[in-house]
Amino acid sequence: MTDFKFPLPRHDAFLIGGAWVAPRGGETHTLVNPADETRIADIPMADEAEVNAAVAAATAAFDSWAQTPLAERRRLLVRLLDLYNGAYEELAELMTREMGTVRSFSSSAQSWVGQQHLEATLRAMDGFVWEESRGDMRLIREPVGVCALITPWNWPMNQLVVKVAPALAAGCTMVAKPSEFSPLSSLRFAELVVEAGIPPGVYNHITGSGPVAGSALSRHPDVAMVSITGSTRAGIAVARDAAETVKRVHQELGGKSANIILPDADLRARVIEGVETCFSNCGQACKAPARMLVPHDRMDEAADIARAHVETIRVGNPMDAETGQGPVVNALQYDRIQDLIQAGIDQEGGSARLVIGGTGRPDGLNSGYYIRPTVFSHTDPKSRIATEEIFGPVLTIIGYEDEDEAIRIANDTVYGLSGYVQSADTERARRVARRLRCGTVFINNADWTADMPFGGYGQSGNGREHGEFGLADFTELKAVLGHG
After folding, report:
1. What are the distances in angstroms from CA 483 to CA 290, 302, 475?
2. Residue 318 burial (CB count, 10 A)
3. Which of 173, 115, 124, 147 is closest to 453 using CA atoms?
4. Is the pLDDT of residue 211 over 90?
5. Do the domain assignments include residue 465?
6. Model-level pTM?
7. Would you please indicate which residues are annotated as catalytic (active-site) residues?
8. Are 418 and 432 contained in the same domain?
9. 271 and 250, same structural domain?
10. DSSP state of 245
């Protein structure tokens, strides 16, 4: 592997009450570099007692932080943004080391989205209606309380900062628990929080497993809200644990997004864009357009375009500038993707044709969790590969007869996170977008923005993140009558 430029952040302790606290000597998780399967570090795994200590610190800090003037909270967020920008490339490299994302993508996307969420939160703070009068009634937005922030491994800074920034802005205190498979960048972020001067106990950071630390946070009576990004399975577990104390649960979960390419679209351009978007971050994105819908009579043409483009993707060392796709995050994810690719090859539930890719590592790669970029065509919309979230570089192309059938197929899913519509006729694309049952629709690959609401329908979760929408979800609404 290419030598890394930056050292590891402190990874042998938990940030609790403003101090780095050594673990009590419990379990550890061996973090492995997914590019070559070598050991990076042993990460401490918090037990219930350590979770309780972190929650206690957040609880003790809440009253003071909630009453801190908005201008002071904003000043500290600006300071955090400045420090984040100074550590931008360091954070990018850490994400490549821990989860294998291509180094150039780590910089242009993985670090960038964290920066964008900090900036969007600052904009939202300035325009947010914190209080207003309606007659003799005063409506007041107040912080929800102590929050548990549980984040996954696939977009480490995106999914941490999108929660931390609005929670801090709203006046909440928190305990953050990132995935044990991508803890390094979040540990560096915790160091930045301390350096920014955010008061002790406002931001606490632990590493640990979902079944132990995540469950303890979700069950804790002093936690007022759990915000989780992860699999639908994990979201269900959190909701069950949180139910007994009737706390707020915010979930951004799985997806199986449809990309409808309408007959009037530029097929070549839209298929290539669809492949690139689906395979972005090695396919490890909940909003990935993993189901490409094309007219039946253009199926073979679409498959040929996809094949030719995938042939240009170079898979290999994520630190090399020429690499277009690195490994997936770990052995468990690698094995699951292999199983689903094999299910497609076996034509389980349908008559899918393997266009390119397949099982096993790409030629010349004998270690690391590398996946062959894979495309299936003529896919049965009811098959496993068309209905399960694969979370890897696997695209299924599905045929449709007319616009109504395309919409029915797109909506025939337990998920409802994102959708994509491609058409030369903007009005037609808008009409189709309105009929899709999902939280976000991208027309003709419109740009993502940190100011948009992000969240889903169905088993894709509850609540919305980003900008003013995320800020609102970290507040409670109080009505004071007779206020005058």
Report:
1. 53, 64, 20
2. 29
3. 124
4. yes
5. yes
6. 0.96
7. 252, 286
8. yes
9. no
10. T
